[in-house]
Amino acid sequence: MREVLPISVGAAASGLAVREHTLRTRAERLSAATLETLLNAIDANDSDTGAHVRRVAEYALILGKAAGLDERGLHSVERVALFHDIGKLHGALTDIFHDPSKLTPEERRAVMTHPQRGAEVLAPLSAFYPELAKGVAAHHERWDGSGYPHGLKAKRIPLEARIVSIADSFDAITHRRRYSHARTLSEAVEAIRQGRGTQFDPDLVDLFLSQAVLSRIERAMRRALGPKRKSENRRDGDRRTPAPDITFRWRPRSPASPTPDR
Ligand SMILES: [Fe+2]
């Protein structure tokens, strides 16, 4: 009997492994490309929102790491952070979000639809990222059940959304947006502390306010404001500020690309 069979089986197995690896790599690149395309669409529509979601993603990753999430969990948190406000791109809401004047009750009700609208935009990706649409839908839920759209309470709110909620509020307080002035780090810390157990997950707040996490958050915030902008930001938040980079790419980063400190 010829002895070629084991070699042929071995060669076939190795060919299959190579093919499987190639397919997996392609699938990973395609999914990263899809997410980057969505992010590009956010940037193209509103660069301020594009910078905001990147900052929120950076803060959320710092908190997620401190909470002991593994790589998979961290990617999940990053995706929810990057796309939490995608519902604001809806035509019915764009004018409202670009209008700096105080919201009417009707406009406020319209604004409150953005988590659900975002979840609807992302629904086709649910087969690949089951946490994404759910996390985005829940980013304005509150720990005490008084949030929207579903009034979810405590740990019924997805972890990604609980993390992003703190990061989002922190950025909304410390970075000037069209409808609000930037406030100081200590004002932000106080606001997060006051939301402990009402708006936010108390354990995550304790973690966020711990010395180690807060100093990382502060460094990230200073980087985002830029060295010369610390004092300028309060009176001119519309100037472009450097946005943190994302952790996924559909093609490898060039060697010159800076690696975010995460
Ligand atoms: Fe939001």
Number of helices: 11
Shape: globular
Kindly name the structural category: mainly alpha
Q: Could you say which small molecules are bound to this protein? A: fe (ii) ion
Query: Can you summarize the main beta sheet?
Result: none
Can you characterise this structure?
Helix content is 59%, strand content 0%. It is built from eleven helices and no strands. The longest helix is centred in the N-terminal third of the chain and has 41 residues, at 5-45. The termini are far apart. It is mostly helical. Helix 2 packs across helix 8 and helix 6 packs antiparallel against helix 7 (130-137). 31% of the residues are buried. Fe (ii) ion (FE2) binds next to loops. The site of fe (ii) ion has 5 residues, from loops.
Summarize the structure.
The chain is 59% helix and 0% strand. By secondary structure, the protein is mainly alpha-helical. Bound molecules: fe (ii) ion.
Spell out the key features of this protein.
mainly alpha, 0% strand, disordered C terminus
Q: Layout of SSEs?
A:
Elements lengths: L4 H41 L1 H20 L4 H13 L7 H8 L6 H7 L2 H9 L7 H8 L21 H16 L10 H10 L7 H7 L2 H15 L37
Helix pairs in contact: 1-2, 2-3, 2-8, 2-11, 3-7, 3-8, 6-7, 8-9
